[in-house]
Amino acid sequence: MDTKHIQIRDYDYALPEDRIAKFPLPERDSSKLLVYEGGKISETQFRSLPTLLPEGSLMVFNNTRVIQARLHFRKKPLQPPLGGDLRSEEIVNSQSSNSQYLGALIEIFLLEPANPVEYQENFVQKGSCSWYCLVGNSKKWKEGALTREFKIQNSKFKLMAERIGTHGTSQEIRFNWDANLTFAEVIDAVGELPIPPYLNRKTEESDKTTYQTVYSKIKGSVAAPTAGLHFTKRVLADIDAKGIEREEVTLHVGAGTFRPVKSEDIGGHDMHTEHIAVHRHTIERLLAHNGDAIAVGTTSVRTLESLYYMGVLASQDNEDLHVPQWMPYEYDNSLSTIEALTALLRYMDERGEEVLHSSTQIIIAPGYKYHIVRRMITNFHQPQSTLLLLVSAFIGDAWHDVYDYALSHDFRFLSYGDSSMLVP
Known about the structure:
- By secondary structure, the protein is of the alpha/beta class.
- The chain folds into two domains: 3-66 and 208-423, QueA-like (3-Layer(aba) Sandwich); 70-192, no CATH class.
- It is 24% helix and 26% strand.
- A nine-stranded mixed β-sheet has the order 2-1-17-16-14-3-12-13-15, with helices on one face.
- β8 and β9 form a beta hairpin.
- α7 (280-288) packs antiparallel against α10 (337-351) and α8 (298-315) crosses α10 (337-351).
- The longest helix has 18 residues, at 298-315.
């Protein structure tokens, strides 16, 4: 199959607005689970998942944590009314009764760290750091720095944002603040959790909990790995009790995950870069399981499948293990999964690394050969999306049957919706 010439219109379906789950269910594991296995479709509750999994198998979860990535600033407030200054919260809150005196609202959306470039190092910076960001209403921000005040325990601080350059379709923004706080603490205080745009609502306080997986640990994503939202401590305990091993990887989900495919064929679509971190013991566990795994979510799928191609690059003595978008379709797949993972371990040994840090632009679409993922837990994705292409690459044209069933059996769609277990 010539993957680059796949027409995205062939991966469309009608998704009524009322089928998009605007909020999650009160109990995460009471969501519905569609099971596609052996060419047959059935349904159950998500909490029954452990009974459907093979004893002794290996499950891989993405432990990334969503950050408060939306930062709002006001550009040059106008003269306040007689009798006092505008309060700092009014400068950000456009619903204020004094809003006619406010300047343009500028949204700065954090994408990935620029300096320092490593997420964890950037988050512990005090006083200054820079990020690549999307800027909303950027035409109103012609020059100079933006400033906003914020409070923590009755102490007032200032956060400044300054443009220092462009980076592809994003801009590099330097942040400076006058508090003895880490950048992670600053964005926790002033930022807003970025729920998906297709929810068509404002972020609510409850999203701070419900839009995180119960096993989230490593801050860095601007979107949740949503298949993981169904898991509870009860379900995880049942998985452990059945003798199923669990490993975690980290892939920080970027805003590009929501970017629609605008070209007619997917050869014209540029995949966003995603940063991953995988511990040595996870690769060792994969080898112990003959390179086979159950992936929780499409982000775990992309991480695991990228590991194979990173192993290919390592076997060719490449220093840089970044996986380009079209590499899977240009390589002959002659290296076995075991050989690729073994080459990765050798690469890490030679450098004394316990954690593999790399990046991937992999696009998984029909014509792709899966190397590691044997079962997939995933939600129901948007029409004409790269995530739907990934599902189609896994179960073929049966994706039509799966989505038709979900639509006709009252399944809830997208991030806060129900999920499926897919077995080719």
